[in-house]
Input
Amino acid sequence: MKSLGIPIPTLRRLPLYYQQLLQAHRNGEEYVSSVELGKATGSAPEQVRKDLSFLTGQGKSRVGYETKKLAEIIEDYLGLMDDKEAVLVGAGNLGHALALYQGFAQYGFRIVVLFDNDPMKVNGKVGELKVLPVEKLTNLVERMGIRIGIITTPPQPAQEIAEMMIAGGIKAIWNFSTAHLVVPEDVLVRNVDLSLELAVISHYINGLSVRNS
Amino acid sequence: MKSLGIPIPTLRRLPLYYQQLLQAHRNGEEYVSSVELGKATGSAPEQVRKDLSFLTGQGKSRVGYETKKLAEIIEDYLGLMDDKEAVLVGAGNLGHALALYQGFAQYGFRIVVLFDNDPMKVNGKVGELKVLPVEKLTNLVERMGIRIGIITTPPQPAQEIAEMMIAGGIKAIWNFSTAHLVVPEDVLVRNVDLSLELAVISHYINGLSVRNS
DNA sequence: TAGATTGTTAATCGATTAACAATC
DNA sequence: TAGATTGTTAATCGATTAACAATC
Output
């Protein structure tokens, strides 16, 4: 899984800069420097400049980066303004939260339908969104030309669901399950396993206890 | 923020190995090799051995790692079995989902109370958990000796909430807000900003569209 | 002009991957 | 013993940090 050219850490920092640029623009600031961007986002100014140099040289010596213009460049580069439809499988707590979360819309990201196996949930609704049976997954994805799938199921069915998604033409999977997914080369998988973060936190707290006792 | 000795990527892989070890143990397998662990978790076998070597040499040539023993070593190392109480601030969709999620319990992790500003939510309940007003945060944290805080609020109040947490003695913050938190050196912050993942996905899908058109 | 700031090249750092001797 | 597998050292890779010339 190559991201062709740009490092993934850089890619993940771009939305942080983007938000700051929008903010600055709303405040009527025409330019913002790498130092300011860095301070607001927690990166070193060199890092900011390096990251932005992947997009295109836009900064001006002495004044910094044009807020509006650079925000637009990032928008284009990440495709933030394109409408991106997604399906979500697994209408549990986390699935609900993601389906109802408003914040994704600002990046053109929109969940259009949920899937679940549980007969209690199927044909119900979560907010405005229908919950359909998993059997219809591949078909609907294909028919609607959807390219993004979100998995918020337990680990057991995750691989099978990924395959159904891919069969329907999905090219990017946002995997919240703890399963390790095996997919073809041209399919992007982004794993968000919250328990992995717990390990870091737990180890840190554990270290404190050991030292204190 | 140093994790003293062990790389964070390694720390994040340990729970993956741990789950596989438990699984193997349940299946009655006494030993598991680095090749098997790697295949199941998506790491190279060398990576697995390297990671495990941070803990203690436990493997045996020719047979692999003792499932039960290694699982226990990881448990100890990460402090998974210690009861770790946490507070959560921001009883929105994501806050609900985290509060209700069952999966954290297996790592000894337990959210004990929620906080929110919204008078509609305050003094209500989410599942079994009370929702208290944010004014009580510092005090309750201090009184109960809680060391872990979770922030699932909008970005604006996040810094202030972090400070209230820290004032009460919290040492690790799991930050789901998009805010960049500034904290003392001895406080661990783990950021989970889901929109950063969206940037990676969006850029990938964008790249596909460009190539296809 | 002097000074601030960019963009880029080079140096450093840290993690991953490869190689291989040791061992059961 | 032969072969599988570990543990560790060395090589590679990639990202971050530092340095600095170019520029407005």
Chain B touches chain A through 59 residues (CB under 8 Å). The longest helix of chain B spans residues 8-26.
